[in-house]
Each structure stands twice: as C-alpha cells, then as structure tokens.
UniProtKB/TrEMBL annotation:
GO terms for biological process: gibberellin metabolic process. It holds the Pfam family DIOX_N. It catalyses: gibberellin A1 + 2-oxoglutarate + O2 = gibberellin A8 + succinate + CO2. SUPFAM superfamilies: Clavaminate synthase-like. Keywords: Dioxygenase, Iron, Metal-binding, Oxidoreductase. It comes from the Eukaryota. Its EC number is 1.14.11.13. InterPro entries: DIOX_N (IPR026992), IPNS-like_FE2OG_OXY (IPR044861), IPNS-like_sf (IPR027443), Iron_ascorbate_oxido_reductase (IPR050231), Oxoglu/Fe-dep_dioxygenase_dom (IPR005123). Belongs to the iron/ascorbate-dependent oxidoreductase family. GA2OX subfamily. This is gibberellin 2beta-dioxygenase. PROSITE patterns: FE2OG_OXY (PS51471). One of its GO terms (molecular function) is gibberellin 2-beta-dioxygenase activity.
C-alpha cells in the first residue's frame, strides 16, 4: 500500500481480532463470470416505432428479470469517460491525510467501515460521495481545478442518461415519462467516486459489502479490472467488464414503486490481490419528502417518503451493521433479526 491509501488494514484487524460471529445472510456460491443483458440505446431515438418499442421492452424486461443491465451507445463520449477516469486517479493518489482532512468535494471522503463488528461487514475501499449541487462548486476542489470542469460535464451527462432511462421505466408503468424528472432533486442525487486498493491479505475480503441501492436507479462507469458481483437466481454472478458499456441497476425505490415488477438486486464488490479498481456511480434519487407508493393495488409495500426510508436504512446500519431495506416496509411482512 502507498501513502495515498487509507489505513484499511488497521481497521480491518480490529473486528477480525475479537469477532467470532457475524449475523449476515449465508454466503452463496459464485458461479462463472458472465455478461449482463446488453442494450443498444440508439433504439430509443429511432424513427422506427417498432425499433423503439423493442428497445423499451428490452430495458423493462432486463429490469424485471435481472435488475441489472449494460447499455451501449449511451451518449457519453469515451473521451469524457477517459478524462474523468484520469482525474479520478489523480484525486485518489493524493496523500491520505489530505483526502481525509482538507474538505475536498464537500468534505465527502469516506473509507472502510468504522461500524463493522466482524470482517464480513468491512469494505476495503475509499470514496468521495458528492451531491450534484456541489459538483460545480469551485470551493470544493482546492488545487484540483481540472477535476471540476470534467466532473461537472460528466455529472450532467450521467444525469441526462439516468432521467432518460427513468422515464422509460416510469412510462412502462403507466406514468408520464416526465414524472421521474419532477420527483428527482439535485440535492439528493449524487456521484460516488470509488477506489478499491489492492488487498493482499485475504481473497474473502469485500471491497464493498453486499447491499441494494436506496435510489430509483444507479449508473456505473467502471474500469476493466472487474470485481462486481450480482445476485441472480440465489447465486453470485461475477460481471464481466465491457469497456464500451455502462452498467445500470434498479434501486429499492423503483422496486417499491413498481410493486415488485422491477427488481432491486443485491450486489457487492470483491477485492483483487494485485490490481486496484476504480469506478464512478451516479445515483438517481427523489427529494426527501417524495412519497413512494405502488402504481397498483394491492401493494406489497406501505407508502413511505424517501427521507423516512433513508433514516430507517441508516438506523438499521447503526444497530446491526447491515442494511435491511425494503423488507421493513412490507405491508404483510415480518423482518427477522
């Protein structure tokens, strides 16, 4: 590890040395590496109605069957992605003390998991978690002047793509496609810049623990190292990177809103003993007072606001080390601890 990496080993050893039990779902088998459903988004702008309807159908089917898919011809230029990745690497190679204490990117730096009570709750990673409202704020960048220009452009492009896909999914449920743009707010949408340092001590350590996303949808731009795993048919599937594609996954809010038509699927990141990994995620979220309710009755979930959902998730993580998520909001369900 270099002086730019956070002291992950020290924090990992603490729960490892005194924990003998970890209350988490049983580990499930990893099957072979595979490709996610691949969708060419140029079909959405086709003048041929049949082509466009086929593209919409493919998006909605992947959202129901997988909860994850990858998109090609998504409109974000390779040049911009490469510039963003270069700036991201420069940011994370900054000395740890500077990242942790200088107020960079809205003081959003985080690393590891201080609440971990056992090794399997620990995330071997570091990240900046930046609200869209702060992305263009000059005061957040310090000497990283070139990062601001690139990140502002990148965030705008990711936001445009997320709202396009959100509109397709809401229209399929019988809403107007503009509903998602009216609900979502730059104060709650954000970019997360991730860095997963190489981890020499154990192949079982996770870069990011298993979870579902607490948003409508997430768009992920990752490098070619790999490490993302997705739950499919009760097994962990290792996702094969595609340099030309972005990955899209459904979040909890779309699962609740669609009454389970779209699936918010567990996923995690595994570590690599030799190679570090970089990724950037865009999270499409509504305002905190937005009410999430099913588009049809009877509903699997009771109505809740995004603020209520977020608070419950954070409370569960504080108490148990794990996110419980949507099961807390089932109409006729019981959550067992």
């Amino acid at each position: 590890m270099t002086n730019s990496d956070p002291p992950l080993l020290n924090h990992y050893v603490a729960p490892s040395s005194h924990s003998t039990r970890c209350d988490e779902p049983q580990t499930r088998l990893v099957i072979e590496e595979c490709r996610l459903p691949s969708i060419d988004l140029s079909g959405l702008s086709s003048r041929d109605g049949t082509v466009r309807r086929a593209c919409v159908s493919t998006i909605c089917r992947a959202s129901s069957e997988w909860g994850f898919f990858q998109v090609l011809n998504h409109g974000i230029s390779p040049r911009l992605i490469e510039k963003m990745r270069s700036e991201q690497v420069k940011l994370f190679t900054t000395p740890f003390e500077r990242k942790a204490s200088s107020g960079l990117l809205n003081n959003s730096y985080r690393w590891g998991n201080p609440r971990a009570t056992c090794p399997k709750q620990f995330s071997w990673s570091e990240a900046f978690h930046v609200p869209l409202t702060k992305v263009s704020d000059e005061a957040c960048y310090g000497e990283f002047i070139s990062l601001r220009e690139v990140m502002t452009e990148f965030a705008a492009e990711m936001s445009k793509l997320a709202r396009l896909l959100g509109g397709v999914l809401t229209e399929n449920l019988g809403y107007g496609k503009e509903v998602i743009s009216k609900l979502c707010d730059e104060n709650t949408c954000f970019l997360r810049l991730n860095h997963y340092p190489a981890c020499l001590i154990s192949p079982g350590i996770l870069g990011l623990v298993a979870h579902t996303d607490s948003d409508f949808l997430t768009i992920l731009c990752q490098d070619q190292v790999g490490g993302l795993q997705v739950m499919k048919d009760s097994k962990w599937v290792s996702v094969k990177p595609n340099q030309d594609a972005l990955i899209v996954n459904i979040g909890d809010l779309f699962q609740a809103w669609s009454n389970g038509v779209y699936k918010s699927v567990e996923h995690k990141v595994v570590t690599n003993a030799k190679m570090e990994r970089y990724s950037i995620a865009y999270f499409l979220c509504p305002s905190y007072d937005s009410v999430i309710g099913s588009f049809e009755q009877p509903s699997m979930y009771r109505k809740f606001t995004f603020g209520e959902y977020r608070d419950q998730v954070q409370e569960d993580v504080r108490k148990t080390g794990y996110k419980v998520g949507l099961p807390r909001f089932l109409v006729n369900g019981t959550v067992h601890q």
